[in-house]
Design goal:
By secondary structure, the chain is of the alpha/beta class. The protein has 19 helices and eleven strands. The strands form four sheets. A four-stranded mixed sheet has the order 9-8-11-10, covered by helices on one side. A three-stranded antiparallel sheet has the order 2-1-3, with helices on one face. The protein has a two-stranded parallel ribbon with strand order 4-5. Strand 4, helix 5 and strand 5 form a beta-alpha-beta unit.
């Protein structure tokens, strides 16, 4: 049936009433071959569709005429295609390009994998597992999805099975994820593999990423409203750190884009935007914005980094970045030009600061150590804690003197006191930042009896898991019969459980000594 679809080139063959064939470029030429008075009819079919597709790179540009478009756009740089049509289409375009246009039609070929469903099955209408991108963007109800997946089926008897499968997989239909979240998902999945398992959870995760970026922009716009941005203001260590991290991100993004590693490019942007900028720098900026000395530098840095984030991310998530960029122009008296016309950010080597990166890494280690103690000891995140530090070197002292106010604010500490190496520390939960000890005295912070009961319950639960894993690994039949990867996985589970039990037992011992 597809041979009668009228979008390709009709076969240039004509027949007379006796079945004689006349192949020619036109009816006039065929008629000349057949002779006057002979009635001819052209073949109803079209040439192989790949014949027409092979002409696509130059036939769309006005060929065989030497048009301005042909001279400008042929050959192009990159062809994006699936691995399954390399011979059918790619090879033919190259051969036709060399024959008719005098050059190969493209310099690089970016070969994508085949997107399959979450179970690794090829998507097809007969299986009822096709996901329409529009439904992922706009959302679709369960009833609409059932209708869509079962209408016009070549095997109607499969309808009930497909309905059951769809209800199990999408009981509430598919929510709206938006175009940017779907684009980011496809970019993140673009690894150098032949098969891509499409997981709806990934789309949900990247929708959350887009929301994170949007909320970050709300924070920046709110904090900078009415401010005069001074691009020459003195920068704090935190400002220098995020600008230095931004340069490393630019280097990696540029490299991955050049190498066609869209998956690595997406990961690089995700890590920088979510963790460095949103989780850390925005939090670091809060106390800096309340200080007259650091405010101007932090305001300029917040806006500069956000603008460059938007430009770096624009090729992947164009809609949300365009909207945020337009709103940011109100802070700088910009001309409201579209983000798509802006130059890609250049790497500014003079903004790379090893010292700032080392200091903020130290700061992060301190804060994460306090947060870990809170989590392990079940101490509320908002409760101010006294803190002692011991075994301090020159770097530790510099960082404590420089960043004390940020530590008190972000780690929610009421004080930081230094102990000499000979001082006896109170019974404390301990975190290490390099060789420096960070101590949180536990007396009066927790209900000993209640915490002991909680820890014993956790240990009891973990002991059951340990017995289960250990029993499996002591079974010779399992060890000899299971694949090595499965056995190693069970060993990893056992080691993880034993490590958790050791940690909880250590906490229990500390509590008993209070």
């Amino acid at each position: 049936m597809s041979r009668q679809i009228w979008w390709a080139h009709r076969i240039p063959a004509w027949y007379d009433n006796d079945g004689n064939i006349f192949v020619a470029d036109s009816l006039e030429e065929a008629q000349a071959q057949a002779g006057e008075g002979i009635k001819l009819r052209q073949d109803d079919d079209v040439l192989d569709t790949w014949f027409s597709s092979a002409l696509w790179p130059f036939s769309t540009l006005g060929w065989p005429e030497q048009t301005p478009q042909l001279s400008r756009f042929y050959p192009t740089n990159v062809l994006v295609t699936g691995f399954d049509i390399i011979f059918f289409w790619v090879a033919r375009m190259i051969m036709f390009g060399l024959k008719f246009a005098g050059d190969v039609p493209f310099k690089d070929i970016y070969i994508t994998g085949l997107i399959k469903d979450g179970q690794g099955q090829k998507m097809s209408k007969s299986k009822g597992n096709v996901l329409d991108p529009i439904d992922l963007i706009d959302g679709i109800s369960l009833d609409q999805l059932l209708t869509k997946r079962t209408q016009g089926m070549m095997q109607p008897k499969m309808a009930d099975k497909i309905k059951k499968q769809t209800k199990g997989e999408f009981p509430d239909g598919i929510p709206a994820f938006g175009t940017d979240a779907l684009r980011f998902t496809f970019a993140a999945l673009a690894s150098f593999g032949r098969d891509i398992k499409f997981d709806l959870k990934r789309v949900e995760g990247y929708r959350n990423f887009c929301n994170k970026l949007w909320n970050a922009s709300r924070f920046v716009l709110m904090k900078l409203e009415g401010a005069t941005i001074d691009t020459n203001a003195t920068l704090s260590t935190s400002d220098q750190w995020i600008l230095s991290r931004l340069q490393e991100t630019k280097v990696n993004v540029e490299k991955h884009l050049k190498d066609y590693r869209l998956d690595l490019m997406s990961h690089e942007l995700y890590e920088f935007i979510w963790h460095d900028y949103c989780d850390w720098y925005l939090e670091l900026s809060k106390p800096l914005l309340t200080d007259d000395v650091t405010r101007a530098g932090t305001q300029a840095t917040l806006l500069k980094v956000l603008n460059e984030i938007l430009t770096l991310s624009h090729p992947i998530i164009p809609f949300i970045t365009e909207e945020i960029y337009t709103q940011c122009q109100t802070l700088t008296d910009g001309e409201n030009e579209s983000l798509m016309t802006q130059a890609y950010p250049k790497i500014e080597q003079d903004l790379v600061s090893t010292q700032a990166e080392e200091e903020i890494k130290w700061l992060q280690g301190f804060i994460l150590g306090i947060r870990q103690i809170r989590g392990e000891m079940n101490i509320p995140p908002s409760k101010p804690l006294p803190c002692f530090v011991q075994n301090i070197n020159t770097k530790d002292q510099h960082c404590l003197d420089t960043h004390a106010s940020i530590l008190l604010s972000l780690a929610k500490l009421e004080s930081i006191e230094q102990l000499s190496n000979t001082d006896e520390a109170p019974e404390s939960a301990t975190a290490l930042v390099g060789d420096m000890k960070v101590l949180i005295p536990l007396a009066g912070l927790i209900d000993k009896d209640q915490e002991a009961v909680r820890l014993n319950k956790e240990i009891e639960k973990l002991n059951k898991h340990r017995a289960q894993f250990a029993g499996k690994l002591s079974n010779e039949k399992f060890i000899s019969g299971a694949p090595e990867a499965v056995v190693n996985k069970e060993k990893e589970k056992l080691a993880s459980v034993e490590s958790a039990i050791a940690d909880l037992s250590s906490q229990l011992e500390k509590i008993a000594n209070l």
